Amino acid sequence: MALFARQLQSLTASGIRTQQVRLASSTEVSFHTKPCKLHKLDSGPNTSVTLNKEDALKYYRDMQVIRRMESAAGNLYKEKKIRGFCHLYSGQEACAVGMKAAMTEGDAVITAYRCHGWTWLLGATVTEVLAELTGRIAGNVHGKGGSMHMYTKSFYGGNGIVGAQQPLGAGVALAMKYREQKNVCVTLYGDGAANQGQLFEATNMAKLWDLPVLFVCENNGFGMGTAVERSSASTEYYTRGDYVPGIWVDGMDILAVREATKWAKEYCDSGKGPLMMEMATYRYHGHSMSDPGTSYRTRDEIQEVRKTRDPITGFKDRIITSSLATEEELKAIDKEVRKEVDEALKIATSDGVLPPEALFTDIYHNTPAQEIRGATIDETIVQPYKTSADLLKAIGRA
């Protein structure tokens, strides 16, 4: 009996080693995700998804860049090197990285003021994001936009007014349909903006015209310091489009987000019109840096989410367990990301700022120099430079 036990143990160990070798050499692994909840839909995204090694490492790196970049921004704010508003995305990384993974060339994004990660994902550098936060010339818009107003070719910003991006996203989608593009506009808003009247005006127009727009509610549980249960009569945000179909997605699982966004994009691309998505997620920091985030929830609650639902550590465990990545590979990525952010910080805290003449630039497009009124009617100035590009060229920073 003892011999049989030893033989069985040996065979089992051998089988495990064989399985580990097979997995280690595998470049693609299947995972199961939490099913989506559906509204006015007969079927939804697959719950069985595949992931290859290249994508696994990229997604991990992208989420780590956003997390470390936001941590750096938080520290800069505490050091009073960032002034004004500053809304951090820490905890919600799987939403942005997962959606971006499903997007194709020509797709567009517009969001609210929690926009640093999206700006980076859609083409800006870490330096451009952090330098914009500190108001430096090296910033995304040379220090003129700050935390809430950054842009790239396919990213229509950060928007500082609650819900203002909702009808604008529908407008971008209208342009796409007019041009007969097979693209979508991902229009993001928080649960705090889900009760805005303009959202319902925008969804009505989008449905009337079957616009290719994804209205995505990133539900992190709190609108500023108000829990969703206290602000919304219905907290099933994916159903709030009424006649617009919707899906609920686990926003802490990057693979669930990617698969749902792929499915949603195919739905819009087929000409069926708009779709509402609710990403169930969580933010670790307060609404903004001026909010400690602990007066309306406990520190224990935050730590529990970090421990059990963190999008980065959860994804890390999955790709290591499935042998898509090793601890050493991920440590190397962490080191690389840390270096990239540290180098960006040096520029963000040492670069120069635009001269006062920059206040008069970028007011009108393609016009002669305009006479701009100052603080009083007696104070006027003719634009010395019409655009920031003209000014940067004049000071040798073009």
TrEMBL record:
CDD domains found in the cross-reference section: TPP_E1_PDC_ADC_BCADC
Molecular function, one GO term: pyruvate dehydrogenase (acetyl-transferring) activity
EC number annotated for this UniProt entry: 1.2.4.1
Keyword NADP: no
Any one cellular-component term (Gene Ontology): mitochondrial matrix
Cofactor: thiamine diphosphate
Family matches, as SUPFAM superfamilies: Thiamin diphosphate-binding fold (THDP-binding) (SSF52518)
Name this protein carries in UniProt: Pyruvate dehydrogenase E1 component subunit alpha
Pfam family, any one: E1_dh
Job description of the protein: The pyruvate dehydrogenase complex catalyzes the overall conversion of pyruvate to acetyl-CoA and CO(2).
Highest classification ranks of the organism: Eukaryota, Metazoa, Ecdysozoa, Nematoda, Chromadorea
Reactions accelerated catalytically: N(6)-[(R)-lipoyl]-L-lysyl-[protein] + pyruvate + H(+) = N(6)-[(R)-S(8)-acetyldihydrolipoyl]-L-lysyl-[protein] + CO2
Major subcellular site: mitochondrion
Compartments where found: Mitochondrion matrix
